[in-house]
Amino acid sequence: MKIKVENLNTYFGEAHILKDLNMEVPKNSVTALIGPSGCGKSTFIRTINRMNDLTPTFRHEGNIYLDGVDIYDDSVDVVDLRRRVGMVFQKPNPFPKSIFENVAYGLKIHGETDKDHIAQVVEESLKAAAIWDEVKDKLDMSAMGLSGGQQQRLCIARTIATSPDVILMDEPCSALDPISTLKIEDLIHSLKEDYTIVMVTHNMQQATRVSEYTSFFLNGEIIESGLTDQIFVNPKEKRTEEYITGRFG
Ligand SMILES: Nc1ncnc2c1ncn2[C@@H]1O[C@H](COP(=O)(O)OP(=O)(O)OP(=O)(O)O)[C@@H](O)[C@H]1O
């Protein structure tokens, strides 16, 4: 298992958001998190790279293990954790810098100075994110001039460049057109050979197309987890069936 979540409860002030969650995420797999708006999916993935720590009212109980080490242990370096657990957001958020600098940025802040090595990693990351052919002749151009779908693949390249183990994606296609969405889905498919991916999606078809495992969230609880085929074809819980067939949410 790459990630193991045990009895996780989280709070923002008095509000109890995630309730006694347990989950296991196998290495080199894609796990989809589905569920209605406000049920805690984003809060959950932001717990895996300790992004919620930036909210002063946040606190948690329970354990999240990454390769067997509790990520909330005092010995864990949060900067290193966020390098190992990268994140791609709903809206593409490139820096207002060149395409090259966007991808090189993470390497540089982690202290890399070898220009040849940086150039090599930038090229490899753009290739892995399936955008190299579209940008190789304009690496000095501002990333803000790319289309939304290209910007999202650039953000994925930026995440890959720092060699993460896990990539968290929070509705990575929700701001994209159908063709860009398919490109990102193909990309997710190829990325799982090297990375473990946990992805929030509101799109049921997308969950069935890209993930092997699915967890259904409702009101801060995980109602059902399992193989995506089983969850969508033969859910054990009535509430899962009602949600995936569009009866609520
Ligand atoms: N920083 C915060 N401070 C206080 N409450 C928060 C904070 N972030 C999220 N919440 C609350 O936590 C609950 C879960 O929100 P979350 O964004 O995790 O849900 P979600 O399932 O990802 O929703 P959506 O699908 O709409 O993105 C909501 O009630 C929300 O208001």
Notes on the protein architecture:
With 249 residues, the chain is an alpha/beta fold. The chain has a domain at 3-91 and 166-245: Rossmann fold, CATH 3.40.50.300. It has 10 helices and 10 strands. The strands form 2 sheets. A 6-stranded mixed beta sheet has the order 6-7-8-3-9-10, with helices on both faces. The site of adenosine-5'-triphosphate (ATP) has 12 residues, from strand 2 and helix 1. One of its GO terms (molecular function) is ATP hydrolysis activity. It holds the Pfam family ABC_tran.
Report the major sheet. Answer: 6 strands, mixed
Bound compounds, each kind once, are: adenosine-5'-triphosphate
The total of beta strands comes to 10
Q: Compute the average pLDDT.
A: 95
Rg from Cα = 18 Å
CATH class of the domain at 3-91 and 166-245: Alpha Beta
Uncertain stretches of 5 or more adjacent residues? none
Give the proportion of residues in helices. Answer: 25-40%
Question: Notable features of this structure?
Answer:
249 residues; alpha/beta; Rossmann fold; 6-stranded mixed beta sheet; 4-stranded antiparallel beta sheet; 10 helices; 26% strand; binds adenosine-5'-triphosphate; AAA+_ATPase
Secondary structure layout:
Elements: E1 3-12, E2 15-25, E3 30-34, H1 41-48, E4 58-66, E5 69-70, H2 78-84, E6 85-88, H3 99-109, H4 115-128, H5 132-135, H6 148-160, E7 166-170, H7 178-191, E8 196-200, H8 204-210, E9 213-218, E10 221-227, H9 228-233, H10 238-244
Bound molecules: adenosine-5'-triphosphate (ATP).
Adenosine-5'-triphosphate binds at residues 12, 15, 17, 35, 37-43, 55.
